[in-house]
Amino acid sequence: MTRFRKILIALLFVLISLSAAAAAKFQLTVATQSGGDDIEVGEQFYVYLKLDNIDAEPSAPEVPGALVKYFTLSSQSSSMSSINGKVTRSQSLTYVATCTASKEGTYSIGPLQVGDVRSNKVSYSIVKSGTGSLSKLQQRQQQRQQQQSSQQGAYVPDQDDSNQGPKFIGKGNDKLFLKASVSKSTAYEQEALVYTVKLYSSYAPIKFIGATEAPKFDGFVVEESDETSRSLHYETYNGQEYATAIIARYIIFPQMTGKLTIKGNTYTVSTDEQEYYDDPYFRMLTVRRPIQLNVTPNDLVIDVKSLPSPQPADFSGGVGKFSLTSSLPSASLKTNQPASIVYEVKGSGNLKYVKLPDLNNLYPKQLEVFTPTAEVDAAAKGMTVSGSVKFDYSFTPLELGQYQIPEVSLVYFDPSTGKYERSVAKGYTVEVDKGALSEKSQTKNRLKFTDSLMPVGKLQKVDTPYVYKFGFWLWYLIPSIALLVIVIVYRRHLKSAADIVGTRMRKAGKVAARRLKKAAACMKASDRERFYDEMLVALWGYVGAKLNIPTSELNRQNVAQRLTEAGASDNIVNRFVAVLDDCEFAKYAPGSGNDELKVIYERGADIINDLESSALKK
User: Fold this and answer.
1) 512 phi/psi in degrees, rounded to 5
2) Residue ranges of the chain with per-residue pLDDT less than 50
3) pLDDT tens-digit profile of 5-37?
4) Which of 34, 274, 369, 382 is 20–30 Å from 306 (CA)?
């Protein structure tokens, strides 16, 4: 029996030694992006939760004075050791909460509890932006960028950087970099170009890609394309295989000549970096550690040439490849009854900025043509912007007869041939029948009716004949004065109608008001793209008509100069250009709702009202 007890006690000690484990521990630490003690408002910092020998899984902590962006498992490891027959197992898990400081103050976290284990308590301070240690980090990053630019983008590690914060690798390294390219390095003004940013990576699969800001397209009009990569592809570059993806693509139109620079923006890439450990029991262990890398694509310089001179007098401003067609619903018309004719421009290029000739200068004077309504159906596709624009013109026949609607030409510049091309829409022969009474006929009828009302009068037994009285001559004087007034008004009307430029100037405000109404409707429908299109057409169309500027000459510099020459104040000129810039920028930037559209709408309406009320020189 004694021997049996000894064996039982020995087995018990063996089981206890095999199941022994290290004590459980829960440790909290706070790490700043700069490696200092203080955290600036707006700075990103990290809260690490290290759990040793704890089976439970923690939840995302609440971090006072900051916003927790995401909470992930950072690393994990396990080990087992045997000393004098005693086997000890241990496991370590590290979770990281990525936070952004939002409010100044001194705060603390903890103690937190996971399972039955409580953590320590850590304190940290959030200070005003620009006063903490982050500014030192920014200085080091600027120095590092200068070093990288002098070494053609090679990564120079900063010994002072924190191992926990995002690493800035500038133009990239042999494991990850971005390559920006453009379809043509030499192009014509207004020619459509494709700007592409491509990612090359030899890391583990990418988890997140985000741009901290938009590329700087100074001197370009931009159309964003959604033709980016949905998945990674593999490609050999300089003898090494990379996972690649197109992460950004833009269609850009240069607005000025000379050498224009496109500066790449910064992208934040999150991935896993593998670390290797030589464990005495399990030999080689591989641990994945999440890292964040800030990388910037290369800058590009584009040599923009001006369009060949001399330009045709009827140049539409279009650069690309286009065709023009026309359609007339009915060739049987009646006087004083409105009709319509539609011209459609199809093709690819700067389609949204193509303008047709002034039809009042082409059509017979007996056909009064009004300002068209444009319907744009175009989008960035492939290597350019393609689609169609319909111009719906309303016109009114004024007199009976047969009239010829002439052919209408669209003159555009084709970069592929380097020449100005012409597309012609067919003309029509229309027959105008009698409809409602014309203005001339109505005037004649009114005069006849007035004459029929004139009384003959009766002889009265008076000594003075009626012919010598004032009332007798009053019946002749009133119609004569009325006729004279009608003739003067009618002649002024004819003179005003002949002054096409003056008519456009006078109607510029009304046309802009109609465009603003359409923009307001788009704002109510939360249609941001059409809203900004209508606002830009209203602003450009108003100033072009008001100052009689041809479409080919509509650009910011020319408009600002002409407004100043017309007597507009510097404040009005700067506000007008600012609204144009904000509309074009906000159209491709992420929107914040109808409040943003409302502010842009009110600013555009105010500046047009101010220009209408200002004493501009003719």
Assistant:
1) -65, -35
2) 1, 14-21, 133-137, 140-141, 144-145, 147-164, 282-283, 439, 441-454, 456-459
3) 666 565 555 444 444 445 788 899 888 765 667
4) 382
Q: Which two tokens stand for residue 550?
A: 């041809």
Question: Pairing state of beta strands 332-334 and 428-433?
Answer: parallel
Per-residue burial over 37-70, b if 16 or more Cβ lie within 10 Å, else e, is ebbbbebbbbbbbbbbbbeeebeebebebbeeee
- With beta carbons less than 8 A apart as the criterion, state whether 166 and 98 touch: no
pLDDT digits (tens, 9 = 90+) for 137-154: 455 445 544 544 444 333
Place of tokens 């399972």: 115
Q: Which of 450, 443, 568, 563 is nearest to 493 (CA)?
A: 443
* Rounded CA separation 113/118 (Å): 4
Nearest to 20 by CA among 109, 81, 99: 81
96, 47 contact by CB (below 8 A): yes
Dmax (CA) for the chain in angstroms is: 172
Tokens (6 digits) for 231? 């998945």
* Residues in the chain, total: 618
* Six-digit token string for 13: 């000690």
The CA distances from residue 466 to 450, 461, 470, in Å, are: 21, 10, 9
Is the previous residue joined to 310 through a cis bond, with omega within 30 degrees of 0?
yes
Q: What is the pTM of this model?
A: 0.44
Encoding tokens for residue 188? 């014509």
